[in-house]
Amino acid sequence: MNTPMNREMNTTNWEPLERLFSTCQIPALSVAVVGRDRVFFSLERGIANLETGEKLTPQHRYDLASLTKVLVTLPLVMELLEGKIWRLNQCLQDFYPNITGDTGKITLEQILAHTSGLVPTVPLHLEGGGKTEILERILHLPLEFSPGKKCRYSDLGFMLLGDLLEREHGLSLFELIKRVGPLCYGDVRFPLFPAVATEFCAWRGKLLQGQVHDEKAYAMGGAAGHAGAFGTLHEVVSVSQNLLNTPPDLLERMTQVRSLEGDGCPRGLGWILGHPRCSGGGRSSRQAFGHTGFTGTSIWLEPLRGYAMILLSNRVHPTRQDGHDLLGLRRKFGETVASLEFYKGDLL
Predict the structure, then answer these.
(1) Which residues of the chain are modeled with pLDDT < 70?
(2) What is the DSSP letter of 342?
(3) What span, in angstroms and rounded, lies between the C-alpha atoms of 233 and 48?
(4) Shortest CA distance to 219 belongs to which of 229, 210, 211?
(5) Sign (positive/negative) of CA torsion 20, 195, 323, 66?
């Protein structure tokens, strides 16, 4: 069902999008195409929990997974960089004086551009302990390659950024997230309600609903720099519109090419940048940027065209093995929106 959510009346025929998502088998799905001050298209449909039959409502929060990196951690880091409190070339050793070797030489820019050399992920939650122990293990893990040598996406650097933000401000991430908009973290002791269910977690022995899917974030109490944020479609729309209204100089700083993935896809500070093979689809402009989340979330922004695309889902419910072609859906979403050419200006 197409929900209004203050939808702007326009003459664009949105039926191609409605057809695209009508065939999607993911249990819960919330989608929007928004401008700087309006909602062009929105759709929310499905079941929040297949076990109970709980229906999706506009009040249901989604586990945003790695969108946390760019919707929470990155804005907080950029605030410190713009205020000249932090510098991109600062090394981890400036913040953690006791670490030595190449890990201490990793810069903030390398963490944000995923060229730190830190391994993509490690099951740190299985080794016991809480946030302090997990962060200490990260700082003493061997690097996969020398900092700056190549691009390899990693959770671990953003986990450290979350810790550095808490140290800098003297506040928890549960409090700091309020600075960047209406999103929230979920304390693992008190599941958020209502929320969309994700996966059955063998480690926790239960189906997750209102509790962070990422095990490392769970072991850290629910709030981390790489994962843990929750939001409704309306809340993610609000954050997306703030991003569309970002001052051009700050936007340029975030989206300047800082590294290249193995397939040639460029990365800026935190963000994936426009590329023919990106999740935004083959019609993404060179100025586009976005990010994805493991639970089935994504955001893609076209600042010069003046719109953003939000896709929230629980594609891991009840298991990640259900075979949903989420990358294909994300790309078709972006390509369909671009083909409608409802925005002002030419394709760039």
Answers:
(1) 1-10, 344-348
(2) -
(3) 13
(4) 211
(5) positive
Domains of the chain: 15-66+183-340 (3.40.710.10), 70-177 (no CATH)
Which residue, chain included where needed, has tokens 């089935």? Answer: 296
Distance (Å, whole) CA 64 – CA 322: 19
Whether 141 contacts 119, CB under 8 Å: yes
CB-CB contact of 199 with 215 (8 Å) = no
In angstroms, rounded to a whole number, what is the distance separating the alpha carbons of residues 216 and 204?
12
**Cβ atoms of residues 200 and 208 within 8 Å:** yes
Question: Model-level pTM greater than 0.90?
Answer: yes
Query: Partners of 31 in the beta sheet?
Result: 43, 311
The C-alpha atoms of residue 80 and residue 95 are separated, in whole angstroms, by: 14
Question: Within its chain, how far is the Cα of 341 from the centroid?
Answer: 26
- Compute the radius of gyration of the chain from its Cα atoms: 19
Name residue 63's beta-bridge partners: 230
Contact between 188 and 221 (Cβ < 8 Å): yes
CA dist 191 and 169 (Å) reads: 26
What pLDDT was estimated at residue 172?
98
Calculate the dihedral angle through the C-alpha atoms of 68, 35, 284, 114, rounding to the nearest 10 degrees.
-20
pLDDT value for 344:
60
Compute the distance between CA of residue 247 and CA of residue 244 in angstroms, rounded to an integer. Answer: 9
Q: Which two tokens stand for residue 344?
A: 């002002």
Give the tokens for residue 220.
Answer: 């850290």
Beta strands in 239-279 (DSSP E): 259-260, 266-267, 272-273
Distance CA 157, CA 271 (A): 14
